[in-house]
Amino acid sequence: MSERNGTETLLRLDHVTVRFGETVALDDVSLSLRRGETCVIQGAAGSGKTTLMKTALGLIKPDEGHVYLFGVDTLTARETELNELRSHMGILFQEGGLFDSMTIEENVGYPLVNMKSLKCPPGEVLARVQQALDFVELGHTLEKVPSELSGGMRRRVGIARAVVTRPSLLLYDSPTAGLDPITANTIMALIAKERDTRGTATALATHRYQDGFLLANYRYNAHTERLEDAGGKNLHTMFIVLGEGRIVFEGTQQELETSPDPYVSKFAKPLKE
Amino acid sequence: MFDFLKGPILSIQTFFLLSGRAMVNIFRSPHYADDISLQMDIIGVGSLPLILLTGLFTGAVITLQMSRALNTYGASGQVGNIVAITLVRELGPVLTALLVAGRNASGIASEIGSMKVTEQIDAMRALGTDPVQKLVTPRLLAMATMLPVLTIISDFMGLVGGYVVGSVLLNLTTPTQFWSSAYQALEYRDIAQGLIKPFVFALVIALVGCHAGMNTTGGTQGVGRATTQAVVVSSVWVIVLTFFISKFFVDF
């Protein structure tokens, strides 16, 4: 694994193409993400956001191009090596991906127990699970099973499971999809909180402009325990818009908002519509 | 030109890849003992009432059907012989396998299929677990252990059913004659055949169920399709394989 310093590239997609039969899900996609950076990936349903996330995680092998996780090419890495790399990453799946036959405690503790490279002593698991659940304000749900929780709560448990290993790279796949605006804002606040308290690199796939806007313009203040306006600093946030598997836009929030492309502009100012 | 063959060939390829990985994993760590015992409970203990009941009535109905033919030839004393051979060689393994396929291949396919469409399989991989090691290998081991045991129980219950009808209800034979002719009818090759079949069927049922589940696509509708496919494919293979195994034992 490459050295871990402030400018280290944690994730790099290099001309990645993914096909499912005749369908091209990702077409010549390149991007990179460094520590402390945020990448907001927007696009319509079926534009390739989820495929991009799964390819970045090494769950889908690209047909062309390369994916480098912490400097390691996932195409040539063995599954055991990928597992070691994944122990430095957290992922929130679109559907939550919680194991419905396990309690919340077992779900959140799952990576600590099963990722051997983390070397988490069994005696520490419960404390770290509790800490992660407290982070998402669900510390009282240890004994419950996912079906007893609401959709928003399940996403928050998914965030707890993603952050319990204290990863340096976090991928969120449509974390606010299908949620009411209040719950969606709570989820986004938690994502910003995790990013700003631990300085993690964050990739967020979403179809909501508001999600990217929040990450680009707000930061979590640990003293006041609230999100605050970052004063237009954009917090190293890059916006990408996917269309039919291709990157049709890449740039800052300002560039996104002034884009003349009719497809791109749909993801720029939905608040005014 | 042969594009229509792509799908089936790909499916066969993925089936054998999955089977190979599941079997190799038997000898690799980590071993999920809790999952194996849970699956043994679901497959073995869960199927027991069904197997007891069907085994009993299968033996009873064979005796009932054979009674007229045997009486015609004055060979009613051979009823234990016929029930034992029919059950141990063929009907016990096949009927048990078909029932377990209906009950458990569908259960396996729907459970794993639901996990697939709700991204739990992806989550498992993302969280450092090989889904084949965690989901497929325990089901394969549990099925390979429990189906032969269920078959033995089914065979025994069939003999009990045959005894009740043959000796108690129809008075075709005395109890001693029934059990003694049943015992003497069976050779070691019959026992071998009766145990090899459920073992092979177990591999097919577990792997077909897991393969259908792991390749589920298309949401809840896909889960339904996978479940149906698992039952149909495993049942057909049970019938096909029993012919070839029987042929092997007849020839050698």
Spans of chain A of 5+ residues with little confidence (pLDDT < 50)?
1-6
Derived from helix and strand composition plus strand pairing, the structural class of chain B reads mainly alpha
User: Which CATH first-tier class of one domain in chain A would you pick?
Assistant: Alpha Beta
Overall, the morphology of chain B is elongated
Sheet with the most strands, sense and barrel status of chain A: 6 strands, mixed
The pLDDT mean of chain B sits at 92
User: What is the CATH H-level superfamily of one domain in chain A?
Assistant: P-loop containing nucleotide triphosphate hydrolases
- As a percent range, the share of helical residues of chain A equals 25-40%
What Rg of chain B do the Cα atoms give? 21 Å
Rounded to the nearest angstrom, the distance between the terminal CA atoms of chain A is 46 Å
Element pattern of chain A in H and E: EEEHEEHEHHHEHEHEEEEHH
C-alpha Rg of chain A (nearest Å)? 18 Å
Mean pLDDT of chain A: 87
Q: In oligomeric terms, what are we looking at?
A: heterodimer
Question: How would you sum up this structure in a few lines?
Answer:
The complex is a heterodimer of chains A (273) and B (252). Helix content of chain A is 33%, strand content 27%.
